[in-house]
Specification:
Structural class: alpha/beta
CATH superfamily: P-loop containing nucleotide triphosphate hydrolases
Mean pLDDT: 90
CATH class: Alpha Beta
CATH architecture: 3-Layer(aba) Sandwich
Oligomer: single chain
Radius of gyration: 17 Å
Number of domains: 1
Largest sheet: 5 strands, parallel
Strand content: 5-15%
Shape: globular
Number of helices: 8
Strand order of the largest sheet: 2-3-1-4-5
Helix content: 55-70%
Length: 203
């Protein structure tokens, strides 16, 4: 089984992925951030590095999905192939960071990939407001993230909402504002209760 965790930058995806993996005994797969060769350059000059970064993420996520499809274990993934395309690439294209030529090349590659992979069995979307995202980004203190603009985050949030509304698979939307699933056990339990109901028909 394949579980995807979706959400904007700073929404808590990696933390929730880790906690759910521990709770259920699932195998986590994390997005490549620490070892990404383009990420720091991207945040310094988004337009210059958008195509290289997005193609790198695309091939990394395809590799992950192919490994997931062969695994007998339940895999929980921090950010999915579909999310990267419909949120981040679409946003970069809309904001002029990807040329039409590069966007078309990317989307042609994505369509070929989708002919051999499928949607996650369950997508969990952590929905967060811009003020909460900014606070979380500042709190974790990654230097390359401190220059992310409000406009960029807002564009991503708008696309997350559109994507979630149109998503054709099974999705749980978690309202992250006002929730502290790290320090309040009842908040984490409210998430696992919904997952149990969705996957196992409990409650």
């Amino acid at each position: 089984m394949h579980i995807g965790i979706a959400g904007n930058i700073g929404s808590g995806k990696t933390t929730l992925t880790t906690m759910l993996a521990r709770h259920y005994g699932w195998t986590p797969i994390f997005e490549s951030v620490t070892y990404n060769p383009y990420l720091a350059d991207y945040y310094k000059d988004i337009k210059r590095w958008s195509f290289a970064l997005e193609m790198y993420f695309l091939q990394q996520r395809l590799h992950d999905v192919l490994e997931i499809s062969k695994s007998p274990e339940t895999i929980i993934q921090d950010r999915t192939l579909q999310e990267g395309v419909h949120i981040f690439v679409a946003n970069n294209y809309a904001q002029g960071n990807l040329s039409e030529r590069d966007y078309n090349t990317y989307m042609d590659t994505y369509r070929v990939m989708m002919s051999v992979v499928k949607q996650p069995d369950l997508m969990i979307y952590l929905k967060s407001s811009i003020p909460r995202l900014v606070a979380q980004i500042q709190k974790r203190g990654r230097e390359y993230e401190q220059t992310i603009s409000i406009e960029y985050l807002s564009g991503l949030n708008e696309r997350y909402e559109k994507w979630a509304a149109e998503y054709e698979g099974k999705m749980l939307v978690i309202e992250a504002d006002g929730m502290d699933f790290v320090n309040r056990p009842e908040d984490f339990a409210s998430i696992t209760d919904r997952i149990d109901a969705e996957l196992y028909g409990l409650f």
